Amino acid sequence: MQRLVQRTMWDRIRNAFFYSNAATGVSVLALFFLALGLVFLVEWGILDAVFRADSQACYQARGACWGFVTEKWRLIVFGRFPYEEQWRPAAATLLIVGMLVVTAMPRFWSRKGSRVLLWGWIAAFAGFFALMAGGFAGMSAVDSDSWGGLPLTVILTLLGMGASIPIGVVLALGRRSTLPVVRLISTGYIELVRGVPLITVLFVASFIFPLLLPSGVRIDPFWRVTGGIILFQAAYMAETLRGGLQTVPKGQFLAADSLGLSAFQKYMCVILPQAMVAVIPSFVNNLLSTFMDTSLVTVVSMFDITGSLQLALGDAQWRDFFREGYIFVAAIYFLSSLLMSRYSQWLEKRLQTGGHRPGQPSKA
C-alpha cells in the first residue's frame, strides 16, 4: 500500500513537472533558484536575525530585525487605541472573525441555522461597536478617530462588502429593467462611480460631504468613510452580479414564470441563487480588493493596519527597519487573502457538485 502511494505521488510530480525535456529543464532551474532564495531567507530571516526588542543589536546584526515587530506589533495591530485597553479591539475583532467562521460552516445554511446566523451577527456587531466605543461598564470612551489597525481593516471590509451586496443586486436588476428611467438611473450611477477612483470618493466623504450638511448636523468620520466604501463597491458588485445574471439560461426565467411566481420570488428563489454561484470567483476578487483598498483610508487620517505601520515607523529609533514591518503586514494580508481564496474554491466546488445546489435548502 505504501509503495502504491509513493508511486502515485511520484507519477503526479512527474506528470506535472518532468513530462518532457523542456519541462524538466525549467523545473530544475526553478528549483535551483528557489533553493538559493530559501537559503538566503533562512540565513537573513532566522539564523542571523535579532528577535529581541534591542535596536542597538539590530544595527549590528547582519540579518533581519524582528525586534521591531516585537516592540511595535501592538501599535501596528491596534493602532492608536489606548494601550491599557487594547484587549477591547482584540475581543471585538475575535467576535467578528468568530462569526465569519460560524457563517462559513454548512451546518448553519439551513432555514433554522439562518436565524441563528442573523441573531449572531446582530450580537457580533453590537459587541464590536460596544467594545470599541466603550463609555460603560468601567470602559473609557474611545472616539472612532482612535480606532485603527487590524480591527478597522476588518470592519471596513465587512461593512463595505456586506452592505454593498443588496445595493449591487438592486442596481444590477435596475440596469436590466425594461423601465427606461430605472435603467438610466442605475446605469448612470454605475458608470459614474466606476469612473472615479476610490481615493476621490474618500476625500468627498471626508471633506466635502460635511459641508453639504445642515448647520449643527454631524456624521462621524468613520461612518462617512464606511458609506463611501459601500457606495463605491456597490457599483462594482452590480456589474459582477449583472454578469452572473447573464449566465442564467432563459429557460429558468420561463420556468419560473410558468409556475406563477412573482417577480420577487422568481429572482430570490430561482435566478439570483444561480447567478451568485456563477460569480463566486469575481465576488472573492471584489472582497480581496476591498480588503486591500482599506489601506487608502490613511489619506483621510484614519489608520488601518498599513497606516498603523507608518505610525510605528515614526519612531526614529526603529525607522531603518521598515522592511521587517512591511513583511509583517504583508504576511497578515497574505494569510487572510489565502484563507478567503481557498474557502471560495471549496465553496464553488461544493455548490457546483451537489453539496448544496442553488435554490434548494441545505441538507445541514
Description:
This protein is an all-alpha fold. It has helices at residues 2-17, 21-47, 55-60, 67-78, 87-103, 111-133, 149-175, 180-194, 198-212, 221-247, 250-258, 263-278, 280-293, 305-312, 322-352, and one strand spanning 303-304. Helix 8 (180-194) crosses helix 10. 26% of the residues are buried.
List keywords for this structure.
single chain, 364 residues, mainly alpha, MetI-like fold, 15 helices
Class based on secondary structure composition and strand pairing: mainly alpha
End-to-end separation: 35 Å
Assess the beta-strand content as a share of residues. Answer: under 5%
Poorly predicted parts: 355-364
Per DSSP E runs of 2 or more residues, the count of β-strands stands at: 1
CATH hierarchy class name of the domain at 52-81 and 160-352 = Mainly Alpha
Q: Which architecture of the domain at 52-81 and 160-352 would the CATH scheme give at its second level?
A: Orthogonal Bundle
**Count the helices. How many?**
15
Q: What coarse outline follows from CA principal-axis ratios?
A: globular
Major sheet details: none
CATH homology superfamily name of the domain at 52-81 and 160-352: MetI-like
What share of residues is helical? over 70%
* Quaternary structure type: single chain
